[in-house]
């Protein structure tokens, strides 16, 4: 049995013409799945019953199972999916004023082992296929209380630029008017700093947003909390970001989570403002989520505010965000959402 999400409209048309069905039937099927949220061919009431039957015998709409769904008191909702090979992945819906953001995973597990992050704790399993990423988005869309999923962030488990081709394929698919029609400018890739991926992305000609998880402003601190820095050092990463901005004419966002006794002192803020001087960028600082197992705690409010003040006074476009979904994080691993209201 094939998964229908492996096909684009042209490919489905070809299958249907082999069945002596008119081409417009493919558009109808796409409409049902991607605009109306049908997950069962039986529900596609304007298709002849013989065609519905044949589709059912040959294709399925969903391949994974929704295993768990948790709702936070702040409206954030987390979904746990079981994949066909028994791997599990998470995705999140984050409602905010005027927008609904879906946060999706790109890998089952993670190999990057950031010191403050729960995702890598149980190791890396495998890359997700483009279809599995699309399926996460389909589930989120179908469960967003009838509201349109307006934004998408690749900030769930895994490193999107370490699964480059599948992530880009999924982005092009959901960006298409035939499917979810999510505008490129409303799609964000977040990377831990995989430089070859950043360079490649600069040449794609896509209007998507690039977010870089920085979390430290000197080589030593960054290597301690993000081992990826030993392969792609901060100095080269910042140079690659400057190059990206030059090539694409787009702003880059730096994510900086504040972790007590690790990266949140005034000295760190001074180093950060120095390395970002003159760059077309913005910085999101976010007090980290508590992860007891990793002994990761956010700093005091006073320290957070003085970090922010220093950046502002240095002329850096900085926003303080607060993590969301803290109460459901405890229930199933980690929720590291921030795209949200200011503190
Ligand atoms: N690998 C990519 C995307 C996944 S991580 C990246 O590194 O950007 C997504 C975001 O969650 C990153 O910015 C990461 O630093 C953040 N994150 C991880 N653990 C966190 C924690 N304990 N508190 C707050 N944010 C966290």
Task: Please provide a written account of the structure.
This protein is of the alpha/beta class and 343 residues long. The chain folds into two domains: 2-60, DNA polymerase, domain 1; 65-342, Aldolase class I (TIM Barrel), CATH 3.20.20. It is 33% helix and 20% strand. It is built from eleven helices and 14 strands. It has helices at residues 9-18, 24-35, 49-58, 130-142, 164-175, 195-202, 219-225, 234-248, 266-275, 301-313, 326-329, and strands at 2-3, 59-60, 65-71, 77-82, 88-96, 99-103, 107-109, 124-127, 151-154, 187-191, 209-213, 252-258, 281-287, 317-320. Helix 1 packs across helix 2 (24-35). Residues 335-343 have low confidence and may be disordered. S-adenosyl-L-homocysteine binds at residues 116-117, 155, 159, 190-192, 213, 215, 255, 257, 286, 288-289, 291, 296, 323, 336.
């Amino acid at each position: 049995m094939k998964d229908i999400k492996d096909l684009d409209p042209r490919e489905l048309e070809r299958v249907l013409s082999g069945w002596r069905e008119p081409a417009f039937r493919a558009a109808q099927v796409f409409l049902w799945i991607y605009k109306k949220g049908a997950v069962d061919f039986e529900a596609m009431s304007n298709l002849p019953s013989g065609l519905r039957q044949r589709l059912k015998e040959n294709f399925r709409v969903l391949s994974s199972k929704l295993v768990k769904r948790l709702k936070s008191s702040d409206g954030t909702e987390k979904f746990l999916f079981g994949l066909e090979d028994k791997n599990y992945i998470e995705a999140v819906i984050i409602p905010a004023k005027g927008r609904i953001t879906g946060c999706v995973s790109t890998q089952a597990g993670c190999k990057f082992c950031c010191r403050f992050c729960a995702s890598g704790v149980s190791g890396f399993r495998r890359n997700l296929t483009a279809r599995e990423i699309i399926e996460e988005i389909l589930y989120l869309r179908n469960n967003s209380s009838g509201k349109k999923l307006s934004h998408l962030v690749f900030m769930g488990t895994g490193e999107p630029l370490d699964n480059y081709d599948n992530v880009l394929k999924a982005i092009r698919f959901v960006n298409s008017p035939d499917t979810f029609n999510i505008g490129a400018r409303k799609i964000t890739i977040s990377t831990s700093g995989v430089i070859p991926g950043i360079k490649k992305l600069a040449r794609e000609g896509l209007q998507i947003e690039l977010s870089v998880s920085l979390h430290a402003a000197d080589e030593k601190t960054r290597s301690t909390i993000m081992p990826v820095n030993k392969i792609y050092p901060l100095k080269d990463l910042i140079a690659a970001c400057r190059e990206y901005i030059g090539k694409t004419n787009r702003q880059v966002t730096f994510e900086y989570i504040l972790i007590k006794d690790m990266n949140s002192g005034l000295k760190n803020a001074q180093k950060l403002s120095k390395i970002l001087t003159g760059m077309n960028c913005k910085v999101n600082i976010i007090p980290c989520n508590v992860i007891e197992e990793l002994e990761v705690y956010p700093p005091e409010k006073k320290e957070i505010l003085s970090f922010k003040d220093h950046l502002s006074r240095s002329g850096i476009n900085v926003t303080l965000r607060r993590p969301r979904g803290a109460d459901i994080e405890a229930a199933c691993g980690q929720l590291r959402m921030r795209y949200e209201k200011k503190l």
